[in-house]
Design goal:
By secondary structure, this protein is of the alpha+beta class. It has six helices and ten strands, in the order αββββαβαβββαββαα. The structure holds zinc ion (ZN).
């Protein structure tokens, strides 16, 4: 185990604790992963284990995966390792994945509703909407396929009757986006209580996306 990997193991734990502390997840649901360097072939990544409360996690409990294979006998990786792997396979720019059962995002997802451009910050997820992937049983290849499709050209998506996924170039970026998506889901949900929110036109969202790209440099 290299210094970098040791550091990343702790960073995965800190991110998992932070998503519960920031109110975007609860209990043992949700999971976090980060990509490890790999020369070529299947992605290597660290992921939270299944069935251990985040506040009891030790660095050695974080599971190192090489493709579909855990590189240690126990504990077992999160049951959702499949979509983490498929995201790293399909999206070379993604270095971290945060999956939560955030209450407002999941409430919309229970209605199979994504988040349209009711607010310009929806562009933070990479486009003019945040899609909702259709329902499939947790841990299945079908769920992973649906999630990958909903994430096309985006950094976040909702999962019907389940939760949300946010990805990024770092653990902190993925976590920050997950917090933003939950805030947007809450605002959208609140706005829906008193009327039908106005949706920004595509040309305005294109302008916002361009400006955001400028600010990121
Ligand atoms: Zn889940």
């Amino acid at each position: 185990v290299t210094d970098t990997e040791q550091h990343l193991r702790q960073a995965v734990i800190d991110t998992a604790l932070a998503m519960n502390a920031q109110g975007i997840n609860q209990g043992k649901s949700g999971n976090v992963s980060v990509r490890l360097a790999s020369a070529e072939g299947e992605p290597r990544f660290l992921i939270t284990p299944t069935a251990i409360a985040y506040d009891r996690l030790r660095a050695q409990d974080i599971v190192a995966m090489h493709g579909m294979t855990p590189t240690q006998p126990a504990p077992r990786p999160s049951s959702e390792w499949r979509f983490h792997l498929d995201i790293y396979r399909a999206r070379p720019e993604v270095a971290a994945v945060v999956h939560t059962h955030a209450a407002f995002a999941t409430s919309l997802a229970c209605l199979a509703r994504g988040i349209p451009a009711f607010h310009y910050m929806v562009a933070m997820a990479g486009g003019n909407d945040i899609r909702c992937a259709p329902y499939a049983t947790f841990g299945t290849q079908t769920l992973s396929d649906y999630a990958l499709a909903a994430l096309a050209g985006r950094q976040a998506c909702l999962l019907a009757q389940h939760g949300m996924i946010a990805v990024g170039r770092s653990l902190s970026a993925a976590l920050a986006l997950a917090v933003e998506v939950e805030a947007l889901a809450r605002m959208y949900w609140q706005a829906l209580q008193i009327g039908e929110p106005k949706i920004l036109p595509d040309e305005e969202m294109a302008r916002v996306l361009e400006k955001m790209a400028d600010y990121r440099g």
